[in-house]
Design brief:
By secondary structure, this protein is α/β, with parallel strands linked by helices. Bound molecules: S-adenosylmethionine.
Length: 782
């Protein structure tokens, strides 16, 4: 069987099994390669009929007949569609000719009976012919919607029994934003053809835009009754449910969309957003599968934003629960094997372990124990492929958390023996097992080992070696290619750079790219931002500066958020920039340039920007106001700025921790950071235990950033208000996931833009801005 025949067979099977979207995809693949494949045209036609797309179907059957007019089935389907479209005369003429040429059989007889019935009961005015419909479709395609409406109304004045004419009228009105007229037209169409999934969908869309969310959900449900694979209906139904506060139902809806098409970026993006503040009260296998698919993609969600949701789901798994409870009981290799085989059956857990630090003390205890158990029992796991998958996930988790777990003397001694054994095998040329390497990689970054290159030669570039050896190598290759500006001579900038050279922040794996880049104006509308001058919101090719881009996650997300933009991303730390550039190349994003330098030296770049973002950066400068003023200088008049700063109120715990660190005179090397962290876990400083609820607690560079930073300023909103005034910036609103709580207490629309009201709200809700104040402002015109 040729490859093409193979695809055809699969397509026919999918069609027979009712998986129409898969079948259509495969048939279209065949037509790409062999445009004159008549059977593929025929099947695509059948699928179009099933979806109610009769005109498209007509074209497909015509194409099939053009290639081969001797297949009865093609004629039968073609004539059926002609009759349905109201062209019984034309069908009758063709049928007579076919019969006179010898066509016979039940199918043809039945068609003849249908035509006869229409002839006996002729409608007074016949529905429009396909040609008439096509002419109106052409008008729409040329954007002449008003003319199309005129023609359609004229047709309806003579005969109002055609569902497709009402539907087209609805679509034309929709394009003209005449939503009430469109709704009425669609409803008329549905009276005649109540099973048309697309028309129900259009009704749902109008209701959603009008704010009738319940009505919208009901219509999306009808859409899905008649076309259970309508992905857009799932997506927009989820959005409507979420807007009604039914996040759980929305999650189930997005999961269904992903079940149908795991590559649907919108469903993945929507699911990621819905999961942010969710905790699961019980197990849910289908949602688990959808989340695992989501985590498989590099650009749909920042895993740490759904970490808590995923962990709450995973903890309902029986294996996981048992492993956590029996954490101290698997010293022997047999017991270890059992636990690992149970955990390996929870793919969602393994996926999460590979993409972000798992911010949870119970899991930390479990992983620390498992890591040691592997080390002590490694001889029982040599070349154990079944266990390797879990070991790789564990080693990846340890690498991502930057080896933050505590190592006891037992760990250290056993690790020493493992390194000696591996080195001995290298000298003796004895076979090395990947299980041994994974065991080592869960304690030490493989790239640091002198034999890292040998490992690549022995095992090739597998998942773990790529992560721990090849990727750091690529970053080293990238570093000299990054351009610099100005000179870093500010004392604080020098110290800050040193910190981020040692610990680039954050070390991310996946991120959340926007599925569709939007004009600034649209983003501003979605965020409810209020700008005095809106000229810059309509820039076609916005020039964006990301100041203090770190390892690139934010810069990349920004580059995908704004349509047609060019981004320049700068940072003090070359290691961070190399990480950012590697990830940018991997994701094949081409609208970002990176440069190394100090924000204080930005005047040496001769460029003005439409939009500047600086999040989590200015509060680490010697004088944030001076850095901020430098950014304002780089902004065009009327230009927009997104700033994120630490809140004095939200970081009370951090201030206490920084005080303790200062009092204990702790250094910020890896050993001191880890030992202080262990003290917090042990409740040596009971008032600091709440730090364990910060996700930054679970990764070395993030924990260093959280409490050991060389420079940290914090602000109140009243101070920010003063600074904005001095810098001649106008506050435009916060970027928040959810501002419902604030709005419930402050219903006046202008309250959203009043920093004094926000300040009073924060006094009452001191942890509200624990994720920093993230806000937008606009540079005044001179
Ligand atoms: C906490 S990280 C934030 C990174 C990124 N903005 C984000 O939100 O993921 C702070 C970054 O700001 C950079 N930074 C701090 N002071 C800077 C300065 N004066 N000039 C340029 N970059 C600076 C640091 O090197 C570090 O990468």
């Amino acid at each position: 069987m040729t490859a093409l025949e193979e695809v055809f067979k699969k397509a026919v099977e999918a069609h027979a099994a009712g998986d129409l979207s898969k079948a259509e995809k495969l048939f279209r693949e065949i037509l790409e390669e062999v445009p004159e494949h008549s059977d593929a045209h025929y099947f695509v036609g059948l699928i179009s009929v099933a979806g109610g797309h009769l005109l498209e179907a007509l074209g497909d059957f015509q194409a099939a007949l053009k290639v081969n007019s001797s297949v009865d089935a093609y004629w039968v389907s073609y004539l059926d569609v002609l009759i349905r479209l109201g062209s019984a005369d034309e069908a009758s003429a063709i049928l007579s000719e076919l019969k006179s040429n010898g066509a016979q059989g039940n199918h043809f007889d039945r068609l003849e009976e249908r035509i006869a019935l229409i002839e006996v009961n002729p409608v007074e005015n016949k529905p429009p012919s396909p040609e008439t419909i096509q002419a109106i479709v052409n008008l729409c395609e040329r954007g002449l919607f008003e003319q199309a409406v005129e023609r359609l109304l004229d047709l309806l004045s003579r005969d109002s029994s055609s569902a497709i004419v009402h539907k087209l009228l609805g679509l034309a009105y929709l394009e003209l934003s005449q939503h009430s007229d469109a709704l009425q037209a669609f409803e008329e169409s549905l009276k005649i053809q109540p099973e048309d999934a697309d028309t129900h969908f259009y009704v749902a869309e109008i209701l959603r835009v009008r704010g009738d969310l319940e009505g919208a959900v009901a219509s999306y449900n009808k859409t899905l009754t008649f076309n259970s694979e309508h992905i857009e209906a799932y997506n927009n139904m989820g959005i409507s449910l979420q807007a009604q506060g039914e996040v759980g139902a929305a999650i189930v809806t997005y999961s269904k969309a992903l079940q149908i098409n795991p590559d649907d970026e919108r469903a993945a993006f929507n699911l990621g957003t819905a999961l942010r503040n969710t905790r699961f009260a019980g197990p849910d296998e289908e949602v688990g599968v959808a989340i695992a698919a989501l985590l498989d993609k590099p650009g749909c969600v920042r895993p740490n934003t759904i970490n808590e949701a995923v962990l709450s789901l995973v903890k309902h798994d029986e294996f996981v629960r048992r492993a956590i409870i029996s954490c101290n009981e698997f010293e022997s290799s047999e017991a270890l094997k059992q636990v690992v085989s149970g955990l390996s059956k929870v793919p969602l857990l393994l996926k999460l372990m590979k993409v972000c630090p798992i911010a949870d003390l119970e899991f930390e205890a479990l992983f620390t124990k498992l890591r040691l158990s592997f080390l002590l029992n490694i001889s029982s796991f040599l070349d154990d492929a079944a266990t390797l998958e879990f070991q790789v996930a564990l080693a990846t988790q340890c690498y991502i958390t930057e080896y933050i777990y505590t190592e006891t003397e037992i760990d250290k001694k056993a690790l020493e023996s493992l390194i000696q054994a591996i080195e001995g095998k290298k000298v003796n040329s004895s076979p090395l097992s990947m299980n041994e390497v994974a065991c080592l990689a869960s304690y030490k970054d493989l790239h640091q080992h002198p034999f890292s290159r040998n490992l690549l030669e022995i095992f090739g570039e597998n998942e773990l070696l790529k992560l721990q050896i090849r990727e750091p190598e690529i970053e080293i290759e990238i570093k000299p290619r990054i351009a610099c500006f100005g000179k870093v001579d500010n004392k604080i900038s020098v110290r800050v750079r040193e910190q981020y050279e040692q610990n680039p922040y954050p070390k991310w794996i996946n991120l959340c790219l926007s599925p569709d880049a939007k004009p600034i104006s649209e983003v501003a509308k979605e965020l409810d931002l209020q700008f005095e001058n809106t000229e810059i919101l309509f820039a076609d090719n916005p020039q964006i500066l990301v100041a203090g881009c770190g390892t690139g996650q934010q810069a990349l997300e920004t580059s995908s958020r704004f349509k047609g933009c060019d981004v320049l991303a700068v940072d003090l730390s070359l290691s961070s920039l190399a990480y950012a550039k590697r990830k940018t190349d991997e994701l094949r994003l081409s609208n970002i340039d990176y440069m190394q330098g100090d924000i204080l030296q930005l005047h040496s770049i001769d460029r003005q920007f439409d939009l500047i973002e600086s999040t989590g950066v200015l509060h680490h400068m010697a004088d944030p106001k001076v850095g901020w003023a430098e950014l304002v200088q780089r902004l065009k008049p009327g230009g927009l700025m997104k700033i994120a700063l630490y809140s004095e109120f939200a970081r009370g715990d951090i201030e206490t921790a920084r005080g303790t660190i200062k009092h204990l005179d702790l250094a910020s090397d890896q050993k001191s950071i880890k030992s202080f962290r262990q003290q917090i876990k042990d409740r040596t400083h009971p008032d600091l235990f709440p730090l364990t609820t910060w996700s930054d607690f679970y990764c070395l560079s993030e924990f260093r950033d959280l409490v050991f930073h060389v420079q940290e300023h914090r602000f109140t909103l009243l101070q920010i208000q003063g600074l904005l005034k001095k810098l001649r910036l106008n506050f435009a609103g916060f970027e928040l996931i959810n501002n419902k709580e604030f709005i419930d207490q402050n219903s006046a629309p202008e309250a959203l833009y009043d920093l004094e009201i926000w300040h009073n709200f924060e006094v009452e809700n001191p942890t509200y801005f624990s994720g920093m104040y993230q806000f937008w402002c606009q540079k005044a015109f001179d």
